Amino acid sequence: MFYLSLLEHTLRLPPSLLSLPLQDAIKQELEHIFRDKVISNLGLCISVYDIRRIDGGFIFPGDGASTYTVEFRLVVFRPFVGEIIVARLKESNKDGLRLSLGFFDDIYVPAHRLIQPSVFLPAKDGYQGTWSWYYEGNDTKYFIDGVDEIKFQVESVNYPPVPLEQPEKPFAPMMIAGVLDAECLGPVSWW
Questions:
Q1: 144 near 119, Cβ under 8 Å?
Q2: DSSP-derived 3-state class of residue 29
């Protein structure tokens, strides 16, 4: 789920940071650039782990900032296919579920990948709609209502291309598709 990734970046260090020790100034600027950003086919950058190498310190004509080539490692969130993760319900609608890890909210479980037979109960009387599972012909309903944490299995991790025009809803640079249609998946209280 979390990895260390080695990167190299040419970094322009603003003069305002030159009062700090070089290592601290570079780390602060790298955190500003990379933290909470998604790098395609790498994942969501959580933080700078360490700095391995610093080269340069050149000041280009007409610029008051020094430029360095920095090799560093990032802590990156990128779940692998088949991994089982525990999340919380963020949203429920007729198309499926949207789950959240607290720091990452673009996890989707489509309706056809919920445990079957499941039925969507639409919103009424001020309550949001919810999914319900009917256990093996029994009349007992098990609800996915956001009270419990939900265990899901990662089916795919996608990095959609950046749209050319502003989309109607916010763009998600990394999306995780999950499934609940196997044993021991779903709200933890079910099992």
A1: no
A2: helix
pTM for this model (two decimals): 0.82
Distance CA 188, CA 69 (A): 47
List 67's β-bridge partners, or say none.
12, 58
Tens of pLDDT, residues 99-108: 999 999 999 9
162-165: Cβ within 8 A, 24+ apart = none
pLDDT at 62: 79
The DSSP element (H or E) to which 27 belongs, if any, is helix 22-34
**pLDDT the model gives residue 94:** 87
| 3-state class (DSSP) for residue 56 | strand
* Torsion on CA atoms 32, 173, 54, 47, rounded to nearest 10: 60
3-class secondary-structure state, position 14: coil
Report how far apart, in Å, the C-alpha atoms of 152 and of each of 103, 136, 177, 191 are: 17, 20, 10, 13
Q: Cβ contacts of residue 182 below 8 Å, gap of 6+?
A: 115, 153
User: What pLDDT score was predicted for residue 127?
Assistant: 61
What residue spans of 81-155 are helical by DSSP H?
none
Beta bridge mates, 91: 98
Rg of the Cα trace of the chain? Answer: 22
